[in-house]
Design brief:
The chain is α/β, with parallel strands linked by helices and about 500 residues long. It has three domains: about 5-30 and about 480-505, no CATH class; about 35-75 and about 125-475, Rossmann fold; about 75-125, no CATH class. It has helices at about 5-25, 40-45, 75-100, 130-145, 165-180, 210, 215-245, 250-270, 280-300, 305-310, 310-330, 345-355, 365-370, 390, 440-450, 455-460, 465-475, 485-505; strands spanning about 60-70, 160, 340-345, 400-405, 415-420, 425, 435. Strands 1, 2, 3, 4, 5, 6 and 7 form a seven-stranded mixed sheet that branches. β4 (about 400-405) and β5 form a beta hairpin. The longest helix is centred in the middle third of the chain and has 33 residues, at about 215-245. The structure holds 2-acetamido-2-deoxy-beta-D-glucopyranose (4 copies). One 2-acetamido-2-deoxy-beta-D-glucopyranose (NAG) binds next to loops. Its main location: membrane.
Length: about 500
């Protein structure tokens, strides 16, 4: 027996095995960044965080909800992009046909492909899958916190606020239908009417601060070219690979549109064997990372203005808790004061709010933020990162801050529990606890941000924005080539295993 040959065979066998195992467990639906569906996002759990054991003498007395709208149709601009993709694909296929090249590598669905939304001219609305996400969330919240939702409905006891964008207000309605189902006299579902209020889009500093903040808009415009540059190497690399693999003359723009199509198909149509099947799991993870980088830079920790402009929302949350505490201390009867403040908005609302309460950070990153220093960008796969669009802001993604009162001890009587997508979530600002004494929450988590003023942040010709932006650039990033770290590690492991087997083989 030729041992070298055997080693090689075993090596190949193990590499194949390791790779195929990784690919079998890979579900593209969990890697769609902010296009990920809620029920999928809710099941993604990578950390081993153990939630606090809450004393059963503690009772919830108030709840703040900040939720993103549910699953929506592609926006008008994106509908046009898909129509353009259809034309492009036909052109590309035609040219290979004319050149009489081999066609067997080309997936059948590409021939004559038309956008599933062809002929649809309006976009961006909440679709029925999105309604269901919010409706079910409403039902689950009522079941989880019966003490909070047993009072009779009154708009001041359960205020529901949405932005003046239809997918957000429709999300609020779907949620309310779930929350109050069986409580009214309308139809067989015994529904009841409830109010959803909105500020005007132009002055909604609580839920659409990104739209009212001039400095943010300027920052965002100035950063977009940088973000595109950052994504280019990923798109170019994948373009080259696909051009080779399929023999089709794709451009960077085509690949970008095909990735968009993959996300829409997988999320809205539950189809993963067409556009998504063009990409390997590793390629998907790179495209997902590129999306997440954009999210980080333009809507997340990438620039302090991104979240600081959310101070009016944070102030509103703290104020609602203080009012609930006051009502309780004054001994008001339940039902005569607010029990929950329910808000329905956008990723541009939810992400800054998460950043303001310091979610998805490790301890050293929190230090940097408090010292006003920029964070590193989320690391490239296969390195792990906490910042993933599919968990931080999926469709219907949400944060709940539940205020509890606990039997008086000398320390603290009121506590804040943080739930992200309904899971208890640690706050680095509160010693990594998900159950934080209210005073600590106020002083250590919120206060460092609340010293900033919305007007000053947004309307000043502030130097601060410029400085942060340029510092961030200096902290720049090198995007290496697309070599798979797992494959290398896999190969080393396989080699060791193969060696072991060969040694055994020689022995017996
Ligand atoms: C691909 O496109 C480039 C320019 O866009 C062109 O020069 C080249 O000939 C095309 N190749 C094929 C195989 O169609
Ligand atoms: C989506 O497709 C998967 C199989 O790929 C199936 O198990 C699942 O039930 C489908 N979900 C829906 C909502 O149709
Ligand atoms: C109150 O203090 C007692 C004794 O120090 C402790 O056992 C109990 O867990 C505390 N309760 C709360 C709600 O912290
Ligand atoms: C609570 O405070 C009282 C006096 O204010 C003190 O006698 C008692 O020991 C304290 N209890 C705890 C658990 O700290």
């Amino acid at each position: 027996m030729n041992f070298q040959k055997l080693t090689l065979l075993l090596l190949i066998f193990f590499i194949e095995k390791i790779n195929s195992n990784a690919e079998e467990n890979f579900d593209v639906r969990q890697h769609l960044s902010t296009v990920t569906r809620y029920h999928v996002a809710k099941e993604i759990s990578e950390d081993s965080f153990v939630p606090s054991n809450i004393n059963d003498q503690c009772t919830p007395i108030h709840l703040n909800l900040v939720a993103r709208h549910g699953t929506r149709a592609p926006t008008k601009k994106k509908l046009k992009e898909l129509e353009a993709l259809s034309t492009r694909l036909q052109f590309i296929l035609q040219s290979v046909e004319e050149q009489k090249k081999s066609l067997h590598d080309i997936p059948a669905w590409l021939w004559g492909w038309k956008s599933p939304w062809k002929g649809k001219h309006k976009g961006g609305e909440l679709i029925s899958e999105g309604e269901a996400e919010l409706y079910q969330l409403g039902i689950r919240i009522r079941e989880k916190f019966p003490e909070l939702f047993k009072e009779e409905y009154h708009p001041d006891v359960y205020p529901i606020k949405a932005t003046q964008v239809s997918r957000a207000s429709a999300s609020a309605v779907a949620f309310g239908m779930g929350l109050f189902s069986g409580r009214g006299n309308l139809g067989s579902g015994r529904h009841r009417a409830f109010a959803v209020t909105s500020e005007s889009r132009a002055s909604d500093t609580m839920l659409r601060f990104h739209d009212c903040c001039q400095n943010y808009k300027t920052f965002r415009k100035s950063r977009e070219p940088f973000v595109d540059k950052l994504k280019e190497p990923v798109l170019d690399e994948i373009t080259q690979v696909l051009v080779k693999r399929l023999g089709l003359n794709f451009t960077r723009q085509d690949i970008s549109s095909l990735w968009f199509l993959c996300k829409q198909e997988a999320s809205l149509l539950n189809t993963t064997d067409q556009a998504c099947a063009l990409f390997s799991p590793y390629e998907v993870s790179l495209l997902e990372w590129a999306d997440d980088l954009e999210l980080f830079i333009l809507k997340g920790y990438g620039n302090s203005l991104n979240y600081r402009m959310g101070v009016p929302l944070l102030e509103d949350v703290i104020q609602s808790m203080e009012e609930a505490i006051k009502a309780r201390e004054e001994g008001l009867v339940p039902g005569s004061y607010e029990m929950a403040r329910l808000r329905f908005a956008h990723a541009e609302t939810l992400l800054p709010f998460s950043c303001l309460i310091g979610l998805f950070l490790d301890g050293s990153e929190l230090e940097l933020i408090l010292r006003e220093q920029p964070l590193q960008l989320p690391p490239k796969p296969p390195q792990k990162r906490i910042w993933r669009g599919s968990t931080v802001a999926p469709f219907a993604g949400n944060n709940m801050l539940v205020l509890y009162t606990c039997p008086a001890n000398n320390s603290s009587k009121y506590f804040v529990q943080v739930l992200h997508n309904e899971h208890p979530t640690p706050m680095p600002g509160c010693e990594n606890s998900d159950f934080c004494p209210f005073e600590v929450f106020k002083e250590r988590v919120a206060a460092p941000h609340l010293k900033h003023d919305y007007k000053a942040l947004c309307s000043m010709e502030s130097e601060q924005t410029e400085q942060t932006a340029s510092r961030f650039l200096l902290a720049g990033y090198s995007l290496g080539n697309v070599t798979s770290y797992t494959t290398v590690v896999g190969a080393i492991c396989s080699f060791l295993l193969a060696y072991l087997f060969v040694s055994l083989y020689i022995k017996f």
